[in-house]
Amino acid sequence: LLQSLDKKTAAQVLEELEPELQKILVQNLGADRAASVMQKMSIDELVDLLQMLPNYKSKEIMQSLPSDSTQKVKKILEYDEDTGGGLMTTEYVSAFFGNTVKEVVEKIKNSYQLHSSVYFVYITDADGVFTGVVSVRKLLVSEPNQTMKELVSGDNKVTASPDQKVLEVATLMTKYNLTSVAVLDENKKMLGVITVDDVMRHFVPHA
């Protein structure tokens, strides 16, 4: 059945399956077909699946993935599974101070297939330094020519570090009632985003 589906649909099906079944299917798909399906998965799901596979199989698939996917995967694999870095995804919507509402909404429309959900746009300066967030709700009720500088929330400066333990991140998100949190390096540059469903999947992997 999985072989007969187009790559995008097969990737969506694969993401929803039990981990053990995912592993069995990928090992029987063949490296090229598995890689072509897996590159359509979200990066965090792709990393989770690669980590479950035997080393020889994950290396085989990594060699068949396109270079942009490989770079994103390697970035996350640098961190332990039970840390913020290991849990984050590098797929998020970002914008600069000077971008208008109209431009950002268009960006979301053009990239919606990369994201299972978009609640916030992460605002950075030209060097990638995090400055705050703008909610999608705020975008929808704002004027098209307003800029992110006018809309950015200076209050929402709660962030995580890549070395924080998952339990610490979960506590942080619960305390401030966050659906997602930016992960920053020591220079306050954005590395990725942790969503509440990533945290829940970590604690309840077979749900």
Secondary structure layout:
Layout: H1 7-16, H2 19-29, H3 31-38, H4 43-52, H5 55-64, H6 67-77, H7 84-87, E1 94-96, H8 101-111, E2 120-124, E3 130-135, H9 136-140, H10 148-151, E4 159-160, H11 166-175, E5 180-184, E6 190-195, H12 196-203
Parallel strand pairs: 1-2, 4-5
Antiparallel strand pairs: 2-3, 5-6
Helix pairs in contact: 2-3, 3-5, 4-6
Describe the structure.
This protein is of the alpha/beta class. It is 49% helix and 13% strand. The protein has a three-stranded mixed β-sheet. It has a three-stranded mixed β-sheet with strand order 4-5-6. A hairpin with a 5-residue loop joins strand 5 and strand 6 (190-195). The longest helix is centred in the first third of the chain and has 11 residues, at 19-29. It is globular, with a radius of gyration of 18 Å. The two termini are 23 Å apart.
